[in-house]
Design a protein that fits this description.
By secondary structure, the chain is α+β, with helices and mostly antiparallel strands. It has one domain. Helix content is about 25%, strand content about 25%. The chain contains seven helices and ten strands. The strands form three sheets. A five-stranded antiparallel β-sheet has the order 9-8-7-6-10, sandwiched between helices. Strands 1-2-5 form a three-stranded antiparallel β-sheet. It has a two-stranded antiparallel sheet with strand order 3-4. A hairpin with a 2-residue loop joins strand 1 and strand 2. The longest helix has 20 residues. The chain starts with about 20 loop residues before the first strand and ends in a 6-residue tail after the last helix. The mean pLDDT is about 90.
Length: about 260
């Protein structure tokens, strides 16, 4: 049980794409992000890391979208959230394991303080294209029904978590502190998540949960919504297009 005493750290020999932590500074409605990631991929493992800074106007935040990424079991998915600022662009948040050089992800190790948590803040041409075009994972995209006010408060929650992890590292836990439990905590005050649901853990079904609670387009049967929300073909066709984010949303339900 000695692993329980191991402290998390931000000072390790990290993989290049996870080396630099993003952080944000708030000045009224102006939020400046530092180290937004936009990797240039040749293959999944061969890439150049680029980062940039950008300032967003919080009053321009209008839309929030959720991605589900499946790589194996239909019961488990990786979840990501994007925030759309009208006329300024889209910012994607992905809570991930922060791996060291030469380290691979293991679900078993994810239960035992083997990976620190990192919030990757990135361009969608990075984190989405990596999964659809290079890893060949199945990706679904849903528009969330949120008021601009709730979207802004949720966004501020994400910024708080982002800056907190920069100053105080924490362990990733595959059961209780992962990509989806983070969404649950950040959205809970503003979305229909008043009660915990088993699909927060078996998060491959979280799209059905938000469908039942009216947080996505429910004008059609759920299976039809899911079929129409699959974005791999259009993402693969868009490749490095400057309007990648616009293309993957064209014709999707609720958009």
């Amino acid at each position: 049980m000695g692993w329980l005493a191991i402290p998390p750290s931000n000072d390790r020999d990290w993989q290049p794409d996870l080396k630099t932590l993003a952080w944000a500074k708030i000045a009224g409605d102006r939020i400046t992000f530092h180290n937004i990631r936009n990797c240039e991929y040749r293959t999944e493992k061969d890439f150049c890391v680029h980062t940039y800074d950008r300032t967003f106007d919080l009053t321009k935040l209008r839309q929030v979208d959720c991605f589900l990424v499946y790589w194996g079991s239909p019961h488990i998915a990786h979840t990501m959230v994007s925030f759309n600022f009208v006329g300024q662009g889209i910012l994607c948040f992905s809570a991930e394991t922060r791996k060291e050089k030469g380290e691979d992800y293991s679900t078993i190790k994810g239960f035992f303080r083997q990976y620190e948590m990192i919030y990757v803040v990135a361009d969608e041409r990075d984190v989405i294209r990596l999964r659809t075009n290079y890893r060949k994972e199945d990706v679904y995209l849903y528009r969330l029904k949120m008021t601009p006010e709730d979207a802004r408060m949720t966004f501020i929650n994400y910024i708080s978590e982002l800056n907190r992890l920069r100053n105080r590292p924490e362990w990733y836990n595959a059961l209780i502190d992962n990509c989806t439990t983070g969404i649950y905590q950040n959205f809970k005050p503003y979305g229909p998540f008043a009660w915990f649901d088993w699909r927060i853990i078996f998060n491959g079904h979280i799209d059905q949960l938000i469908y039942e609670r009216g947080l996505v387009d429910n004008s059609m049967p759920f299976q039809e919504l899911k079929r129409r929300s699959y974005i791999n073909p259009v993402a693969q066709a868009a490749e490095t297009a400057p309007d990648f984010s616009r293309r993957i949303r064209m014709g999707l339900p609720g958009m």
